[in-house]
Amino acid sequence: MLAGFATIEGTARYRDRFPQLRDAGHFRRPECTSGGGQLWLSSIGLGTYLGEPDDVTDSAYTEAIVTALRSGINVLDTAINYRHQRSERNIGAALRQLIDAGELQRDEVLVCTKAGYLSFDGSMPADPRGYFRCEYVEPGILDPQQLAGGMHCMTPRFLENQIERSCHNLGLHTIDLFYVHNPESQLADVPHDVFRRRLKDAFITLERAVKEGKIRCYGVATWNAFRVAEGTRDYINLFEAADIAREAGGDHHHFQFVQLPFNLAMPEGYGLANQTHAKEKMSVLTAASRLGIVVMGSATLHQGQLTHGLPDFIGKILGMKNDAENAIQFSRSAPGVTTALIGMGHKEHVVANLQATFVPPATPEEWVKLFIQR
Ligand SMILES: NC(=O)c1ccc[n+]([C@@H]2O[C@H](COP(=O)([O-])OP(=O)(O)OC[C@H]3O[C@@H](n4cnc5c(N)ncnc54)[C@H](OP(=O)(O)O)[C@@H]3O)[C@@H](O)[C@H]2O)c1
User: Fold this and answer.
1) What local confidence, expressed as pLDDT, does residue 141 receive?
2) In the chain, how many domains are there?
3) pLDDT average, residue stretch 324-328
4) What is the pLDDT of residue 58?
5) How does pLDDT run across 119-175, given as a tens digit for each residue?
6) What is d(CA 331, CA 325) in angstroms, rounded to the nearest whole number?
7) Which of 284, 329, 349 is the pocket-test mutation for ligand 1 (most atoms within 8 Å of CB)?
């Protein structure tokens, strides 16, 4: 197990190994009101969601992660359920390889993972229900009464168990950033007051995990929660989530990050004023900035769909070499997005996507033209 965690000094050291990228504005230091903020983070991060749960995909992912870490990407995003825990293990293998070779230090990289969904171990078992019964229900880790949609849980006991498993998969003593994965899934099953209580219990658990040195900070990684209209069933108000964190951890709580899809086809984080605070309406990017919460954008390429066929006006405004680069430039240049996460299971995509990061991000003036010029 590797000791340590991402630090200001370590991430600055990493940034300085890539002077050309540094000078092009590829590394950002997000303002964060408490704890582990202020790290130097790359403007694109490597995501590990897609791909088959097999050995060939494992090798390709490990190679892609090694290439990314060698080339200027120091944000890695995963979840325990991605590819039945294999993606976490691929990150662990890549980190171990580079650290053993003296090419990387633990404190240079932000490793982010998530829990909430039930996950298998490496492959789908012959009897999935039996697996969950033996592995989770009988040892008392999972209370079926607290399961939403038959697959989502965020109880203290379950989260503690998932943190232990993720540390083991990643080969790390400490996870830099731990997200509750799609907490809005619970809202399909339970009313708001029950959801609020469950989220508070989850945050209390994560505050304790910070104190114990198992995680450095936490957040919520979402799909719909911050992109839907207020009043929609799976909507979450970020100000309320921050209030819950304050109740759980006081003014110096460790709820420091949110993740939401942000791409050319899903720009709601910027364009939809669905966050109300003291009667003022604003987008979630503005809300996060007011709260000192760092935003990670996911699905930058809309799961690969934005790599071709974009309308010409986008390239004319952003001026990158191809559609994939324009889509990346859009997400990494958004005001308030620190890192745009791109799923990259192949090193060829890492090499190609890094090309975009040698170009400075679009200025706010250029970027906003995308919303007015057609
Ligand atoms: N709710 C959540 O928490 C949530 C939801 C969605 C995503 N995420 C995170 O965000 C990450 C990114 O989202 P995503 O993986 O769903 O989608 P994405 O980043 O929009 O797209 C990934 C897909 O694009 C392909 N690709 C990458 N670069 C390419 C290029 N230059 N040309 C052509 N194809 C390219 C990848 O292929 P290869 O894999 O073959 O390289 C992969 O199939 C995820 O991996 C995950 O870590 C979180």
Assistant:
1) 97
2) 1
3) 98
4) 98
5) 999 999 999 999 999 999 999 999 999 999 999 999 999 999 999 999 999 999 999
6) 10
7) 349
CA distance 204 to 223: 23
Pocket of ligand 1 (CB under 6 A): 47-51, 77, 114, 181-182, 221-223, 259, 298-304, 307, 324, 341-346, 349, 352-353
Top mutation candidate among 344, 346, 350, 351 for ligand 1, by most atoms within 8 Å of CB? 344
DSSP calls for 316-355 = HHH--SSHHHHHHHHHHHSTTEEEEEEE--SHHHHHHHHG
Residue 189 inside a domain? The answer is yes
For residue 342, how far is its CA from the centre of ligand 1 (angstroms)?
5
Query: Is there a domain that residue 152 lies in?
Result: yes
Backbone angles phi and psi of 361, in degrees to 5: -55, 155
Residue 131: which CATH number?
3.20.20.100
Residues 6 or more apart whose CB falls under 8 angstroms from that of 319 comprise: none
**Cα–Cα dist 326/310, whole Å:** 9
Paired tokens of 112: 């982010």
Task: Write the pLDDT tens digit of every residue in 294-324.
Answer: 999 999 999 999 999 999 999 999 999 999 9
pLDDT tens track for 133-145: 999 999 999 999 9
- By C-alpha distance, which of 93, 120, 95, 119 is closest to 105? 95
Asked if residue 1 is part of any domain, the answer here is no
Q: Do residues 153 and 142 lie in contact, with contact meaning Cβ atoms separated by under 8 Å?
A: yes
Instruction: Classify residue 30 as left (phi > 0), alpha (psi -120 to 50) or beta.
Output: beta
> 170: which 2 tokens?
């990643």
Kindly state whether residue 3 falls inside one of the protein's structural domains. Answer: no
Q: Using the mean position of ligand 1's atoms as its centre, give its distance from the Cα of residue 49 in Å.
A: 7
Shortest-distance atom of ligand 1 to CA 302 = 20
User: Is pLDDT at 364 greater than 80 in this prediction?
Assistant: yes
Domain that holds residue 74: 8-371
